[in-house]
Design brief:
The chain has 13 helices and no strands. With about 270 residues, the chain is mainly α. The longest helix has about 35 residues. The chain is globular and about 50 Å long.
Amino acid sequence: MSGRLSLLHHFSIRLFSLLEPPHNFLSLLVCYEMCRLARFKNVMSAMRRRDLVQLVKKKGQRYSKVLGTNVSSGEDGEIFKWFLASVLFGAPITESSAIRTYRCFQKHGVLTPMMIVETGWNGLVKILDEGSYTRYDYKTADKLLLVIGNLNSQYGGSLNRLHTEASDSADLEKRLKQLGKGIGDVTVSIFLRELRGIWSKADPKPTPLVIKAATELNITRNDTPKEALHELKRFWKQNTVKGKSFVDFETALFRYGKELRRKKNVEC
């Protein structure tokens, strides 16, 4: 900051010397205001930087890591576990309920396409209820059986095969949604977000909660997913936090968006 202020100071002296009275007094005022604004801008940038670092460090832990799924391995089994978790996170429920429900699937060993089919509708409902997913238990059991049935018949139960057969990012998202009713934009975005850098075609648009959080923090001005993604990437490129990735940044915004939604519901 001192370097920038010195440059502005030098500029003000130069401008002052070039102009004859009475203009030199006006130029001095202009340059003083430039210095003041530069100082203010740098202070605000520093504050924003600290806030960003805190946000990403506090809220940026990936959900797949919280659950212990190793998606970075790229293995079908680990990718499917994260897909199952993404379906659970896709419903408008609390993060703790989704995690608790996934733990129940884990406890009962129902973490593969084959085991989900073998468990059947009644068994799935029991697991969902055990995890306090009661509000969406029937609906989610139906969804899982439909989606897994299509995954098995169309891609041999392999999400990696689905990715390989997709022509690009848009086709990848389309194929995931076509697995069954209930796999919408939110679930697809949650799932693919943590596959950035693992699947070459994974480049999902942000969810409404991410956009809401980014708008609240004055990071983005555009609420259309495609444009918001461009703004988020540009912002992160200019403000990268050491040791963290764009995925961590998105995850932090997602969690913050959930907090904003919860506060809004409480106020209402």
